[in-house]
C-alpha cells in the first residue's frame, strides 16, 4: 500500500496500531451500528499521540456489557433453557433485572430437562420435579424486609430446594413494600404454596390475589389481616380456583363482604375453619350462606366484632352439624333470642368448645338453652358478660352434663352462691374451674347450703378476686378433695388459717401451686405444704409473698424431690435460703427465679454454681446486691443455663 500512495512507512494506516484502547470501540466511531461488534487483534499502543483527542471517561460511561444489550425477549428465551434450579438461582443473583425476568417465568415455561442442554437422566429429572412440587419450605418476611424483590428471590430460590409451602408476610408502612408484583412472582414460581398469610399489606389488591388463585391451586390456608385493597373479587377468585381451601381467616379487611363469603361456601367443599373479625361489610347473608353451604364439613367458627344479628346465630344453630368449636366475641346486635334459637336449633350436636365474650345476649335463659341444645359440650368460657346470675350459672351447669372445663372472667354478678353451686351441680366430668377478676366473688357471712363434693375437679383457679378469703377456702377443702393444681394469685384476703384447711383437706398430692401475690401467707403455710405434698410438687410460684423467708425454703429443699420450677421473686429471701436449696441433695431445680430479692448477694455465688448442674433458667433481675462481675462468672460457668440479669 505504501508503494501505491508513495509514502514511506509501514502498511498500517496508523503506525501504532488501533487508536482505541479497546479495539471494539472503533465500532462506535465508524458508526457501524450498535448491533455490530468488531474484533481486532491486540497490539501495543504507540508512543506517538493520536491525531485526534477523545474523552476516555465518556467512553467508559457509555460502555455496556454485551449481554445487557440484548432485548428482554432474548434473555427470556435464554433463561427458559437453563437446565436446573441451581443455575436459575445463580443467574438471579446477577442483577435485579435478571431476578425480575426469572421470577416472571412460570415453571411450566422452562424447557424440558431432557433436551440436549441437560445431561441428567430421565429418573433424575422426575425426581427433581417431585422435589420442586412438595412444598417443604416456609418463609417469613416482616417489616422492612417485606418487599417485592425478596418475594421474587424466594420464588426463584425455593423451586429447587423443596418448593415453597408456607409464606407469611408482615408488612409495614415503609416506602418499599409488597405489591401485586411480588405476589405475581410467587404465583409463577411457587405452585406448591399451601399456606398464605398477609398482615398489614395495604398495597396488595385483587390483582395479586387473583395471580395466586390462577396458579397456586394447592392453597389450603388463607389468612388476610388489614388488607384494605382486597375485595370480594379477589376472595371469589381464590374460591373458584382453590378447592382444597380448609382454613380462612379475615381480620380488618374493609372491602370484603357477603359476596366473597358466599363464593367460599359454594366452591370450597373442604372448608373446616372460618375466622372473621372486624369486617364491616360482612353481615347475616354472608355468614348464613357460608355456614349452610359448608354444613357437613365446617368444624371451627370464630366471629368477632361483626354487625350480625340473631338470624346468623339461628343459622349456626340449625346448620352447624359439624361444628366442634365456636367463638362469639363482641356481637352487639345479638340478643337473648339469638342464643335461645341457636340452642333450640338442635344442630350443634357435635359442639365441644364454646367461648362467649362481651355479648349482651348471653343471659340466663339464652345460655341454659345453649347447654340443653349442645349435649356434648365439654369446654365453656364466658368473659365480660354482665347478665349472667348465680341461678343462670347453676342452671347451665346442670344442663351441661358432660362439661369438663368452666372459665368465667369479669362476670361480676356471680357470687359465692353461684360459685359453689356450679361446683356441686357440674356432674362427674368437671376437671377444670377458673374464676378471674369476678368482683362479686366475696366471702359471705350467711350460711351456704349443704352441697356435695366435686370429686372429679383436678384444677382450680381463682385469680384476682379480692373478696375471696378464708371462709371460701374452708369450703373449698370440703368440695374439692382431689385437687392437684391450683392458682390463687392475687388473693390478698387469704391467710395461713384458711390456706391450711385447704391443704389438710386435699387428699391427692398437689403438683402445681401458684400463690403469687398472696401477701398474707407466711413460712408456716409453705412448710406445711412442703410436708404434706412435697413428694408430688413439681412447680411452685411464691412471687410477691413478702412474708416468706429462708425457713420456707429450707422446708422446700428437704421435702420436694420432684420440684423443677421455683419462683421466689420479691420474697424475704437471703443468701442462707439460697444455700439451703443448694445443700438439698435430692432437689433438682431446672428453673429458679429470685428476681427482686434485695438480700441475695455475691455470697450466693457458690450455691448458684452448685445448683447450676441442673439449672436451665435463672432469673437474677433487680437483685441489686449481686454485682456484674458475679453475673459474668455465672454466665461463664453455667453455660447451659439462660440467665436474666
Short key terms for the protein model shown above:
flat, alpha/beta, 20-stranded parallel sheet, 20 strands, 645 residues, 25 helices, disordered N terminus
Terminal Cα separation, in Å?
91 Å
- Content-based structural category: alpha/beta
Question: Unreliable runs, pLDDT <50, ≥5 residues?
Answer: 1-20, 23-41, 43-54, 113-132
**Shape field:** flat
**What is the count of helical runs?**
25
**Rg calculated over all Cα atoms:** 37 Å
Mean pLDDT: 84
Helix fraction bin: 25-40%
Largest sheet: 20 strands, parallel
Strand content: 5-15%
- Could you give the count of β-strands? 20
Description:
It contains 25 helices and 20 strands. Mean pLDDT is 84; it is low at 1-20, 23-41, 43-54 and 113-132. With 645 residues, it is α/β, with parallel strands linked by helices. The longest helix is centred in the first third of the chain and has 11 residues, at 122-132. The radius of gyration is 37 Å and the shape is flat. Strand 10, helix 17 (390-399) and strand 11 (405-409) form a beta-alpha-beta unit. The chain has a 20-stranded parallel beta sheet, with helices on one face.
